[in-house]
């Protein structure tokens, strides 16, 4: 059965941030890694979350309620977009940080990693930070359709080493690869 995603809330500022009680899985990753596209692939819809070839598209925290299960998928702004102004980057970093620290019902953080590029410092910093505040990590290699099989496996192994054995799910929002596996993993975290 195809789960339904319903956009329920959009948060732009720290002041709007609330501690939503329902279980949540958040999607984080560098700008342009494919977070919003993954939301669409998970929903089986093309235009639910807005995507763009230009990084820095999502500048808010978007809460999608997942039916029939009642937990939330939360699309976070991307980080590390070099062309954004310093004050914008700081604003988004603060918002992401406040969300991670302030959401007691956050069950896991899906960290999206581009299968085409080597592990980046910002990604390693985020995973280390999430671990330090005891948020379980659900690493996801994105854009697998752009990578050869060999490259995917090598990246998966490299990340598993960096994450002390946690192996990323290999996904593609274009082909649908890994989408069911991702739903299964998210359900397990969100619903226990
Ligand atoms: P921000 O909102 O800026 O943080 O970016 P994002 O992480 O939400 O990325 P988004 O989903 O907007 O996708 C960025 C670009 O990558 C778009 O041009 C997408 O079409 C492309 N893209 C995303 N996922 C895939 C994928 O699985 N395969 C391929 N080939 N392209 C993808
Ligand atoms: Mg986005």
Automatic annotation (TrEMBL):
| Required co-factors | Mg(2+)
Which spans are transmembrane here?
A: none
GO annotation, cellular component aspect: cytosol
Q: Name one GO molecular function term.
A: metal ion binding
InterPro entries, per the entry:
G_ENGB_dom, GTP-bd, GTP-bd_ribosome_bio_YsxC, P-loop_NTPase
Superkingdom of origin: Bacteria
Q: Name one GO biological process term.
A: division septum assembly
Q: Which Pfam families match?
A: MMR_HSR1 (PF01926)
* Gene3D superfamilies tied to this protein: P-loop containing nucleotide triphosphate hydrolases
Stretches of the chain forming a coiled coil according to its record? none
Keywords, sorted A to Z: Cell cycle, Cell division, GTP-binding, Magnesium, Metal-binding, Nucleotide-binding, Septation
| Nucleus among keywords | no
Q: Where is the EngB-type G domain?
A: 21-192
Q: What does this protein do?
A: Necessary for normal cell division and for the maintenance of normal septation.
NCBIfam families linked to this entry: GTPase_YsxC (TIGR03598)
Give the record's family classification. Belongs to the TRAFAC class TrmE-Era-EngA-EngB-Septin-like GTPase superfamily. EngB GTPase family.
**What is the protein's given name?**
Probable GTP-binding protein EngB
Organism per entry: Desulfovibrio subterraneus
